[in-house]
Amino acid sequence: MLAGRLSAALARPAAQQPCWPDADRAEAVVGLLHEAEPIVAPEETARLSARLASVARGEAFLLQGGDCAETFAGNTEPHLRANLGLLERMGEVLAEAAGLPVVKIARMAGQFAKPRSSTVDALGLPVYRGDIVNSPECTVAARTPDPHRMLLAYAHAAGAMDLVRKLCAEGIEEPLVALAGAGHPARGERRFGDGGRPARPTEIYVSHEMLLLDYERAVLWADPGGPEPRLSSGLAHFLWIGERTRQPDGAHIAFAELLSNPIGLKLGPSCTPEEVAEYVRRLDPHRTPGRLTLVSRMGHAQVRELLPPIVEKVTASGHEVIWQCDPMHGNTRTSGNGYKTRHFGHVVAELAGFFEVHRRLGTHAGGIHVEVTGDDVTECLGGAAGLTEADLPGRYLTACDPRLNAGQSVELAFAVAKMLR
Ligand SMILES: O=C[C@H](O)[C@H](O)COP(=O)(O)O
Ligand SMILES: C=C(OP(=O)(O)O)C(=O)O
């Protein structure tokens, strides 16, 4: 019966999918992946679901973050360590301020697919859709979708997950981030293991956008444990549906309905309270606290106006969702010198609006979802170091959207800490 529901879900229109040049070859790759071992263990996903139930009840806070787009070349131990160490550091700042446990979910071990605004780039080439689909180099060959990349993505994700488990068991050394403005060097220096608190075992889960359905459908196991039999993704503990793929009649929502994993759903400015009520009804049919995380990304100028009617509608429905704010995606703009960027001040302003709305409505502002890296990049403007447009070309390394660097991220954690207090 689940197989039939899965086929029906996948037969619906699916936005943002690549057009593989050879459909048979793509199907053969899906067949190979079908034989692959799950990357995440069912008991880990179940533990995360329990943790998220406490977030939904207001007994914990959710921190989710990492690269906008992971790349195969960037899937290295130093990079993963830096990002995990940053999450640990941010989590510690937030836990202390909130007086609550912080549940940490990395955008890691599978965040290889990107939705895009257009199908072609400025040169007229097919757009880069993430390393799992094609390659960013500006040639027709590089941009042609290659299904073999799904196998590479699986291998990279499995390797990353092994490292996440190892580091969580050992404890992760946190970066000591020197915040600018306190007599420290401009962009925040990172120093490892020289005076930070001793590393201790920790828990970090992995997540990615549930975008590329040929990949997502390949590694599933039957989960008979819940109120109805469902499928569980073997590719990540937590999956989210993006702003560009949340069409109510589309394949992504229908696919997520079949999963037992905790699910996130991005809500942009065009989303109406009625639409959200319908998403909640479909994605949380058994009224499981924390099953659904609603991720508002309205932009700093609109959050105070657009979020309250949505929160009121969902609250009235009685579903115990997690309210999470993504202060990045509604605040993207192009700099005068042509870089896709975000201003630190706008990121903080959207979060301030989010906390204000929830305080006023008496709901739990349950978490944040941010694009950050422990690496010292120059992709977002502002922060105490005062990054300017002239700084952007220095270390603009993202494969897609701009991330806060280590210094900006820790500064953000302190700003959110103030809001939590
Ligand atoms: O990360 C999010 C999206 O992939 C991204 O914002 C879309 O980017 P584009 O507008 O450059 O295509
Ligand atoms: C694409 C993303 O976000 P959104 O769907 O909100 O634009 C993302 O988080 O990578």
TrEMBL record:
EC number: 2.5.1.54
InterPro entries reported for this sequence: Aldolase_TIM, DAHP_synth_2
Binding residue positions for phosphoenolpyruvate: R107, E243, R244, K266, R297
Gene Ontology biological process: amino acid biosynthetic process; aromatic amino acid family biosynthetic process; chorismate biosynthetic process
Binding positions for Mn(2+) per the UniProt entry: C68, H329, E371, D401
GO terms of molecular function: 3-deoxy-7-phosphoheptulonate synthase activity
Keyword list, A-Z: Amino-acid biosynthesis, Aromatic amino acid biosynthesis, Cadmium, Cobalt, Manganese, Transferase
Top EC category: transferase
Recorded metabolic or biological pathway in which this protein acts: Metabolic intermediate biosynthesis; chorismate biosynthesis; chorismate from D-erythrose 4-phosphate and phosphoenolpyruvate: step 1/7
Cofactor note: Binds 1 divalent cation per subunit. The enzyme is active with manganese, cobalt or cadmium ions.
Keyword Transferase listed: yes
Reactions that this protein is recorded to catalyse: D-erythrose 4-phosphate + phosphoenolpyruvate + H2O = 7-phospho-2-dehydro-3-deoxy-D-arabino-heptonate + phosphate
Cofactor section: Mn(2+); Co(2+); Cd(2+)
Protein family per UniProt: Belongs to the class-II DAHP synthase family.
Protein name according to UniProt: Phospho-2-dehydro-3-deoxyheptonate aldolase
Species for this entry: Amycolatopsis rifamycinica
